[in-house]
């Protein structure tokens, strides 16, 4: 076949243009440097690979080419940004956990120590132009991603990770990207995390019911649980979960024992729950014990020790109890066998099928140390990092929970839990205080892209004020004596209704006034949400309480828009792209509304039209 001369010329320029694009793409991420602090030299090699999903993967291998075992102290990676930035350029740092390192948006000229993430950092160069650096794995090290001096900088505490002569390990899997759409960028990132960690289809479940914690704290009786179950059963809707939270054990760590305020133990509660066709959920602290516990006295070797070989104890004064925390050392096979036996007992003898394992951050050295004078931990296996130790514990728990059990992670650094949990609490503990709501709405909704990694849990629905309480209310901070109004309570219930797959109330249903109970009941009836996007994320998130106001959610084929006016003054919202019902929305201060979509656009099309640029 002959081509016309003009066709050849056009083809030449197409090829030339493509070559230029390819050349630019291949050199987009250049000048990357890796600095390793160790007691002996570490050989670090890097390789850039373009992925089919649009990401560029940075693969780093660390090797001991010497003749002596070595230990790694610190890892630092610098990835220069070739584009021009200024002090006014905005950067978004993804949340890493549910309470400490939550999402934050800052200009480069205003960065501080809060501006770091174990997940990602994203630069907004202009409207529709974003640069991205993120981690897909957390297997040996915790990567901390920030931006300094015109570069993405990723650091990790080496925690004296040992490399034997000739040994090689992969650093965590880093991905880099340029994108024109921040929602697509984060959705693609979440999908890449799921693929990297071999996560298949998530459990398609919706839970609704009641839990003990927010009203009773650690102090409750079997009568408290039974009376609330009576009230739950009187509601004109079907519920499927009752969760017993912390406080049922005599001492933390003794998870085969139950204190004497629960006659018949958890087994008796479970028998009633299951007889009524519901699941029993049980909370416990999976990474801490107590110096007073029987397990700690009998097997101190199951717990971490300090550099001098002394059992590490961290004291905490609680309103109802003095806690002497000790920390499980899951590098010890006995500790793993013990926690697995506790879970199997809960499952096989008590009838527990929903496991809320809390305080997971206490499996990681940086979070345990706090302000203590501790120099280092002495673990059973000193050659591995706390991330590796953590994952050994997680594997033991996952195996014990089994494929048919539901595993909810809580107070976790998200990364190292991925691949083990079915669900994750993605925002801080709620309180029946209005000031808590916006902060929790921001931290939860900003983790929307993790929907393919685990099911998302926003925490309990609460609607009580002081008038809804009696003498049994928790003495924990911010749990009693509140002034929550009905419209304020509805705002939090509206948010929970538009996010995740769990709807649990945690008030006292025996004292909650009818109008408050009606708010809760409306929330308990709402379906599982398949995806959620905080449309105005880039207009907020400058601080923890700088909450998003526009939330787009989808449940099956139904699409909803949540509008939240967290301010004290009335506001008008105009969102004609969503339809006539959202063309002019007047909201008083501290009010919210949920609008159902009646048009023909897809969820993705609406996101594109409504999201901040």
Automatic annotation (TrEMBL):
GO terms for molecular function: alpha-galactosidase activity. Keywords: Signal. It holds the Pfam family Melibiase. It comes from the Bacteria. InterPro entries: Aldolase_TIM, Alpha-glycosidase_related, GH. Residues 1-23 form the signal peptide. This is Alpha-galactosidase.
